[in-house]
Amino acid sequence: MKYVLAFTLLFGASFSFGTPKTEKEAIQYATVIMDGFHIKKIYTSMTGPLKEKGVALTPEDKFASIWVKSMSVDIFNEKGQKESEEYLCHAWVTIPTPMNEEKYGRVSGMLTISQGMPEMEFPPGYAMKMAKVIDSQVNVLVQALNNVETKIDKKLIYRIKIGYIDDKDAQALGIKQLYGDSFATQVPPEKRHRPPSKPERLGEDPHKGHSMTGMGGADPVHFIVPPGKHEYRWPLSQDMVSIRNNGVIRLIKLHLHPYGESVALYDKTAKKFVWKGTATQDSKRAVLLKTESYSSTEGIKLNNQHSYEVVTTYNNTSKQTVDGMGVLRVYYGLK
Ligand SMILES: [Cu+2]
Hints:
It is a single chain. By secondary structure, the protein is mainly β. It has one domain. The protein has helices spanning 23-26, 101-104, 167-173, 241-244, and strands spanning 7-12, 28-39, 50-56, 66-77, 88-94, 110-114, 119-121, 126-129, 137-144, 154-166, 176-177, 179-184, 201-202, 223-225, 228-235, 248-256, 260-267, 272-281, 288-291, 293-301, 308-316, 322-324, 326-333. The strands form five sheets. Strands 1, 2, 4, 7, 8, 10 and 11 form a seven-stranded mixed sheet that branches. A five-stranded mixed sheet has the order 6-5-9-3-13, with no helix packed on it. A five-stranded antiparallel sheet has the order 15-21-17-18-19, with no helix packed on it. The structure holds copper (II) ion. The site of copper (II) ion has 4 residues, from loops.
């Protein structure tokens, strides 16, 4: 079967004049359909088929500066029926973010979701501003996963919904800018997991082979988890943009793999946990049902005089070695 319409983009924009909008009313949605995922076997983390695409959220305004507010993923089969999130390794929306690089350093403009969290949304009053660039595009990437079902033949469609606010509304509402950072557990080379195969890329590679994903190799954040309970501690560099600039965290999302129990931010100077998020595991299958998030306008203030660690715990109740990651995706504001 030929996928002629491999990619479709629908716009749900609403227009109203005169009356001031609330933040909810100002949010517009773009829906990106990623199809062509044929799942016929086990795909462990980072080995499933992946698809990537540059998407202009406002094609009618090639110079638009927009504020990305949320993203979510829904998975369907070819009959249009909803499928389990267990088939999602991750979905990323990467946006070019404006930043005073000399003052603060280079930041990440990536929204990510993975198993256990089908959506993310910045708290009220906050969003991630996209740089005003010609033909402003976000990069959307989806990778499939199938850790459990050995007998399977499914054609899956991933629907990514991106919520955003246009610059005029964001200014009127006083929306404040957030930046992304990744507090990831890392391991020495001998403890790294090496995925058994490279992912199959569906469609074109927008980076033409220079993938920004680093997939397939021995990633320092992808580790092996033998059976039993484990704790992984990793010191965070005080040179990270969020820490160096005393960033205030407004949103934290967890990234764990099945058998992952928790990821925490530990303040070594104050000798206390700053925040700890846990995951709910399916009792019978290697699937994460839910991961906790932190979302607050109050915020968590980082202190560049303190040293921090990311602490990840796993309880591998299976009899085999599995692979794991432990990441806090943090979104923070700067003065
Ligand atoms: Cu992962």
